[in-house]
Amino acid sequence: MPPLKRLPIGEIHDQPWCPRVIRDAVTDFLQYAANHWGQYTPLLPTLCYFLQRVNAPRIVDLCSGGSGPWQRLYGTISRAFGDSFRIVLTDRYPNLAAFRLARDLSGGVLDFRDKPLDACAIPQELLGFRTLFGSFHHFDPAAARGVLQNAVDSGQGIGIFEMTERRALTMLAMLTAPIFVLLHAPKIRPFCWSRLFLTYLIPVVPLLVMVDGIASCLRSYTVEELAELTGSLTGAPYEWEIRKLASPSSPFPIIYAIGCPKAEGRG
Ligand SMILES: C[S@@+](CC[C@H](N)C(=O)[O-])C[C@H]1O[C@@H](n2cnc3c(N)ncnc32)[C@H](O)[C@@H]1O
Q1: How far is the centre of ligand 1, averaged over its atoms, from the C-alpha of 190 (Å)?
Q2: What pairs with residue 242 in β-bridges?
Q3: Cα-to-centroid distance, 93 and ligand 1 (Å)
C-alpha cells in the first residue's frame, strides 16, 4: 500500500508555548524507549563506517531531546574512535537535566551545549559529524533540504534516522504508546515527581506521546523522498546510503539517510 500523504502538522511538545516540564517529560520518555528497546542499535556498523570515512573530530547530535539513543550507542563508538571522541548533544530547547545525566553516566563521552541550538543555524565552528534521531520529520521540505545542504556546504557528514512512517499500521501502533508510558514512567531517569504527576494524576504525558507520535508518522519522509531531497543538493559530491533497515528489537524499521563527502577516486 502506498504511504499516506505527508501532512505538515505541528507537534505539541515542539511548540514554544509548551511548558518545559511537559516537553522534557516527553523527550525523557523517548530517550528511555530508545535505550530500553535498543531500537537504533542495528545502525551502529553503518554509523561507524561513515564516521571512519570522514575522520570526524566529534559527533554533533542535533535535536537531541532527552539525549536520544546515545546511552546505548556511545560505548561502541568510544571503543572504535577512542576515549577522547565526544558526542555533543544539542537542542533548540535543551533538556539540561537529561543532558547532565547522560554526560555523567558516560564518563564525559556524551557532552552537551547548554545554549539553544537551532539545527537550521549551526555555527561554522561547530565541526563534526551531524546526527538527527527521530527528528528530521520536524522540518518541512524546504527546511529539511536546508539542514542537508548546510552539512554539504560545511563539508560535514550527516545521518538522519527515523522510526516513524506514514503508514496506518505504524499510527495504529502509536495508539498503544500511553500503555508503555504508564508502565515505565517510574523507571525513567532523571527521576522527577512532576513526570509522575503528569503521567498518573493528569495524564498529559501519555496522551502527548501518542498524539505527537501520530503527528510524527504523518510528517515522516519516505526513502524515496529522502533520495529526492539528497538528489537536489548542490556543491561537493556526497556519497549517500538511504534505506529502510529492520530492527530486531522493534516492529518498526529504521528509515535513514547517511552521507559524507565522496572520497577522491570513488565513482
Ligand atoms: C521527537 S524529539 C527527538 C529527540 C531525540 N533525538 C530522541 O531520539 O529521543 C525532537 C526534538 O527536536 C527538537 N527540535 C525541533 N526542531 C528543532 C530545531 N529547529 N532545532 C533544534 N532542535 C529542534 C525538539 O526540541 C525535540 O527535542
Answers
A1: 18
A2: 257
A3: 8
Q: Which atom of ligand 1 is least distant from the CA of 11?
A: 1
- pLDDT at 210 (0 to 100): 98
- The answer to whether the beta carbons of residues 39 and 163 sit under 8 Å apart is yes
3-state secondary structure of 106: coil
Cβ < 6 Å from ligand 1: which residues?
14, 27, 30-31, 34, 62-66, 68-69, 91-93, 118-120, 133-135, 138
Q: What DSSP element (H or E) covers 257?
A: strand 254-261
Please enumerate in sequence order all residues whose Cβ is within 8 A of that of 9, keeping only pairs 6 or more positions apart, or say none. 215, 218, 219
Of 88, 115, 135, the one to substitute when testing ligand 1's pocket (max ligand atoms within 8 A of C-beta) is: 135
Mean pLDDT, to the nearest integer, of 169-186?
Answer: 97
Amino acid at 140: D
CATH class of 12-261: alpha beta
User: For 183-205, what is each residue's pLDDT tens digit?
Assistant: 999 999 999 999 999 999 999 99
Q: Would strands 86-89 and 129-133 be described as parallel, antiparallel, or unpaired?
A: unpaired
Domain boundaries, the chain: 12-261
Nearest Cα to Cα of residue 255 among 191, 156, 161? 161
Cis previous bond, 42, omega within 30: no
